[in-house]
Structure formats: C-alpha cells, structure tokens
Fold:
Amino acid sequence: MRVLVWDLHEFVECLGVLPETDEDYTSHTFTVEKDGLRLDLTVFEYVGGVYIDLRREGVETPVFSARLTDCEAARYVRDKGGEFIEFAPEGSMNSRRFDEAFRVPFGVRVAVDPHIKVELF
Structure:
C-alpha cells in the first residue's frame, strides 16, 4: 500500500479553502470556485490517490478529469512561476527526495491564483 507524502496545511495555504473530510478521515476534498470554474481536488492519502475534476458552471460532466494512482508525494511550491501544488507519480522520485531543489520530471501541477490552472508536465 502506498501512503501519499503531503502536508494538509500547505494545501490549505495554496488553495485557500479547508477540505471536506469523509467520516473515516480517508479522503480530503478541496473545492475552489473561480471565474465560472470549479476545481475539486480529492486526496486519498492512505492509498496514494489524487482525483482532479475541473467543471464549468452549467455543464454536468467535468471538462477535465484525472485520476492519479500510487502517487508518491505532493508539495506546495512558491517560486517565480507562481504558487502551485505539484504531484509526483509513482517512480518519479529518486530515493524519496522531494525537497525544494528536486524537480519532478513529470506529473501534475494545480494552481488557483490568479486563476484555476491544471497543468500536465
């Protein structure tokens, strides 16, 4: 079983919202609404799962949806490019090093300031 390495407080700082947590405290859903878009970001820390759904107001199905499984880590980054949360999929970390100097070779970035942005890299 993969446990996601992450910091709840950093997610709150970056996303600007408190999560809804299920009754068993196994998932945390952050919902951010801006400019007619709604971002639902759900973290399943005990299985390394991250669900990202981007919805447009008035549209029933998500305009973008991603499911990361076996995600190793997530971190909050604030640099000259802005502030975002970066997710490291399985196999992308080297010796579990995930500090400021480490750059994830591929993954997903989520930002909400000044606008909601989901970036695959």
